[in-house]
Amino acid sequence: MAEKPPTACTPQTALPIIDLTPFLPISTSLYSTPQAHLVAKLTTAAALNCACRDVGFFYLTGHGIPEEQRRTVLKEARNWFINASKEEKEAIKRWDIGKGPGGAGDGARGYQRVGENVTGGLKDWHEAIDHYRPVPPTDPPYAPIHGPNPWPSLQTHPTFKPTFESYTESCLSLGHALLRALSLALHPSPPKEDLFIEFLHNPFWVMRIIGYPPLSSSPEREGVSCGEHTDYGCITLLLADNTRGALQVRDKNGGWINADPLEGAYVVNIGDMLERWTNGLWESTRHRVVHGSGNYRVSVPFFFEPDWVARIKPLECCLAQTGGVPKYDEVMYGEHLLSMVLGNFMTVPPHTPPHTPLPAIEPPRVGGEKKAPALSAEAGGVSIIIR
Ligand SMILES: O=C(O)CCC(=O)C(=O)O
Ligand SMILES: [Fe+2]
Q: Which atom of ligand 1 is nearest to the CA of 267?
């Protein structure tokens, strides 16, 4: 007789480790009976529920993405950041809306130089290429995040684009599997893996390819590499090199937990959309990057999001567990993203030194509570992104 999956959470001091194997397509061959498979899934789901409820961050093993592919992604990213010339970087730069050559520019896709991103009012000490799911140029709901992503030159970096395109496919498969597991975590009895399926016909995604010079190379020799924020979507699959002591996660007491890399694992966190779906049962956890050591750090967070047009509101099963009163108004994911990304414009002098505090921003109201905003504005050549 198969063992029963655990139901209670034990207190966590570090990030929990979750094995997703039972949710991978190959998993059916691993278990002797459907009942044994279901118990394995429920065990993973129960651990996920604890991780999302207590920490909002976890290590994910058994994710099915080959180590070789993950290593190649980081190698390509590092190679480009270190070896691409200033001109090559500027050739794929992010343009403010309509300000690129021939009126191009969506305010979002492309390369941002060190200090161009600002989080929580402070400039971030990193450079990055931001990619979004390519969408047709004439598809109205996506405006202005239209168009293709800009890629490094095929002449100088021929393997960059295919590497990231195939990695995107892998992350999308993993995202779907993880969302089935999260569904079961919320609805184990009777077991339900399809709570999110109606929101994931064509999931939107964002991928940031980030290079972090050491903070000691910044003018102030201190500050922050990526300011404190929550992620605004569904789940984030973080692939990072083996630098320790950089990514820090807020714990429930307001302290910081180091989310150091774990060999072969993803660091995963839940975003604001899952907080809304769960009516706050799971909170998207604040985190930041403070890269104090002397190396050049590389990370590639992949943000797996709902469909652009998905309408997000607390799920019935989560309302039932949280007193029955919705704490969040319904939002369309794409509108929410755009309001965060483009709805706030701030005036920033063009030569503001890194880590200069910017004017305070009134955070949007979320279920009557103030919640840190995720927004982007361009002014004076500075992009402001507050996740
Ligand atoms: O680089 C990292 O470790 C995390 C970056 C991050 O939190 C983000 O881009 O949202
Ligand atoms: Fe983040």
A: 3
